Thioredoxin domain-containing protein
Amino acid sequence: MPMFRAAAVLLLAGVLGLSNELPRPSPLQLGETLPPLTGQTITGHSLQLPEAVHGRQAILIFSFSRAGGQQEQKWATQLSKDHAPVVIYSAVFLESVPRLFRPLALAGIRGGMPAPLQNRTLILYRDERLWQQRWNGLDKNQAGVILLDPEGRIRWITSGPFSESLGRALEKQIRASR
């Protein structure tokens, strides 16, 4: 009899469309506060966003793959030259990298990154899928870029490689968000 009840419950769950999957997170939206993002920097320090940016504007660059990481580096390099008063953070997701290769990936990231940015680069080994869903269809081979206002709210969002036109659009938003 207990086996019959278990089968009935599973059948009912299937008929009702219930599953054990968690609900899809809401996508990142302009004007909303960035959901908490916590991890360790390349240098081993704990960092929690958006709390770390409180009181300052910040740019947060996401990458989910090696190709996305190359775009992230281009964005970070260009923005650190052009937007010195704005703090730049990066979130690099390595959850999908096999554990055996993570030290190599981390060494490659560290080697190609200026020392000042290493303290502001989160290395994340979990919640990769959750954040990809929050990016609402972002190609994992592209970088995602967010401008946060001093309260941690999203003021500008884009994805893809850096371009001069995107840099100008970001500059305009930085001035408008002060």
The two ends are 67 Å apart (CA to CA). The first helix runs from residue 2 to 16. The chain is about 40% helix and 20% strand. The domain at 2-177 is CATH 3.40.30.10 (Glutaredoxin).
